[in-house]
Write a structure and sequence with these properties.
Blueprint lengths: L1 H8 L4 E5 L3 H12 L3 E5 L3 H8 L12 H10 L3 E4 L10 E4 L14 H13 L4 E5 L7 H14 L7 E5 L9 H7 L2 E5 L2 H12 L6 E5 H32 L3 H8 L22 H6 L9 H10 L1 H15 L8 E5 L14 H11 L3 E5 L10 H5 L4 E4 L11 H7 L4 E4 L6 H6 L3 E4 L8
Parallel strand pairs: 1-2, 1-4, 2-3, 4-5, 5-6, 7-8, 9-10, 9-11, 11-12, 12-13
Antiparallel strand pairs: 6-7
Bound molecules: ligand SAJ.
Ligand SAJ binds next to helix 9.
């Protein structure tokens, strides 16, 4: 490990990256730009070809990434391949494959297992393997190490070393987060953690905390679960406010006046790639007791789109209509405000409910190309408009014009974007999530 550490510190080490998605490609390019020779492996041949020709295959706007890829591909500091055999010369190998959770909430580690099996066959003596993908606590010990040992015939901490360094990147800020956010370097031995710090220090300005593998596995899954549970608290408080006829935002702002309180925002649902998945990774395989709060929080958050559907039903009822046979306009399809990322979109869940109830749906989203048509076109002749995402564009809606365009003047706001009084003044029948009727 001492020799490896020196090779890393002098950037003489060759680094492999398995999985050239938005996480793997960012770290591969950043390491190549600091002087390491990087070999990137991906199973998608077109992605490999595009990277080698200097193209950025990542969707959406990623500041600096296209230029970085072009430069390291041109200098051949980063070479992409589909052939695992090319990893045989790597002193360090990062694993950045997808670790999804299935509908039964169980982690699907197939890609991780396959990567470990294929890597094990060509693993260089004394190499350091670092899993960056988000994994359930205990996965390094129970899944990664045994497969690597079996496939390579080497023993952990003798023939190879293992680490877990969870990433904290976010679409739209891939390189910024990679550079700035702190990282946990969980190593299979203390010297392994030291070598990990030497590697990441070359690209990370944030704090690098040394630890062991299981602590690193817990940190990443816990930080996102913490957020999910806090959003669930805000959602449940919002539903209580709605039921008792109070305005959640007012209650929240006053609660947050008290020291050490930070109630988040009740909303139309919790989407994205990390928050809905990581709580299930955190509780996976826990023996001896059954965590209750985390699963309960998940079910509160997953129920918010259905609550939105019920608000639409209630508002239509006030104008003598049922959902069946209506045409409804959904404003916002991305999972997050001012983003084009639609993964696990709460709007998709809402649309499913409304269509199950016999409505037809049209979608508007200024950030998502396929839905970015003029809003007037989408609203025209609809029986209700439903705000699902707090895009900036929806903070200045012309409510009077909306009333004229709608066949039935109904507006339901799932993100506290519209003031209820303004909606009523414009002649709209209004429901606001987490706002009681008379506070809407
Ligand atoms: N949401 C609410 N109420 C809130 C906050 C969020 O309903 O008060 C909803 C959002 O509308 C969205 C979902 O939850 O649908 C997730 O929102 P998010 O702000 O947590 O954004 P994410 O999913 O991109 O979360 C990421 C996470 N960071 C990483 O995985 C590296 C999370 O740990 C961060 O706290 C979050 O970004 C952030 O705030 O940067």
């Amino acid at each position: 490990m001492k020799h490896l550490h020196e090779r890393i510190a002098s950037r003489a080490a060759t680094v492999g990256v398995i999985g050239l998605g938005y996480v793997g490609l960012s770290v591969a390019s950043a390491l190549a730009a600091t002087g390491f020779r990087v070999i990137g492996v991906d199973i998608k041949l077109d992605r490999v070809a595009r990277i080698n020709s200097g193209e950025c295959p990542i969707e959406g706007k990623e500041p600096e990434l296209p230029e970085l890829i072009a430069s390291v591909a041109k200098s051949k500091k980063l070479v992409a391949t589909a052939d695992y055999a090319d990893l045989a010369e790597c002193d360090v190998v990062l694993i950045d494959v997808d670790t999804p959770v299935a509908t039964d909430h169980r982690p699907r580690f197939e890609a991780l297992r396959a990567a470990c099996r294929e890597l094990g066959k060509v693993l260089k003596q004394g190499a350091l393997v670092i899993v960056e993908s988000t994994i359930a606590p205990g996965t390094c010990t129970t899944v990664v190490a045994p497969i690597l040992e079996k496939a390579s015939g080497k023993k952990l901490n003798d023939g190879f070393f293992l680490g877990h360094c969870p990433e904290r990147v976010m679409p739209g800020r891939l390189l910024k987060n990679l550079r700035e956010l702190s990282r946990v370097c969980g190593g299979s031995t203390p010297e392994t953690s030291d070598a990990m710090v030497a590697l990441y220090r070359s690209i990370v300005q944030g704090k690098l905390d040394k630890s062991d593998c299981v602590t690193a596995e817990l940190v990443k899954t816990a930080e996102n679960t913490y957020r999910d549970v806090n959003i669930a608290f805000a959602n449940e408080l919002g539903l209580i406010c709605e039921a008792v006829g109070a305005d959640f935002r007012r209650v929240r702002d006053l609660v947050n006046e008290s020291p050490g309180r930070n109630v988040l925002l009740a909303g139309a649902g919790v989407g994205g790639h990390c928050i809905p998945k990581d709580p299930w990774l955190l509780v996976h395989g826990v023996e001896g007791f059954t965590p209750r709060l985390i699963a309960a929080a998940r079910s509160v958050n997953e129920s918010m789109p259905l609550h939105m559907a019920r608000l639409v039903e209630d508002a239509l009822e006030e104008v003598g209509k049922s959902v069946f046979g209506t045409k409804l306009a959904i404003l916002g399809y991305a999972y997050l405000e001012n983003s084009d990322d639609c993964r696990n979109s709460p709007s998709a869940a809402l649309i499913e409910h409304l269509e199950d109830w016999g409505a037809s749906v049209v979608v508007h989203d200024p950030w998502v190309p396929e839905y970015a048509k003029p809003i007037d076109e989408v609203l025209r002749a609809c029986d209700a408009a439903v705000i699902m995402v707090s895009h900036d564009e929806y903070r200045s809606l012309d409510l009077a014009a909306m009333k004229k365009l709608l066949a039935t003047p109904v507006l339901v706001d799932g993100r506290h974007v519209v003031d209820g009084a303004d909606a009523k003044k414009a002649g709209l029948v209004f429901r606001g999530l987490a706002r009681g009727r008379d506070n809407a």
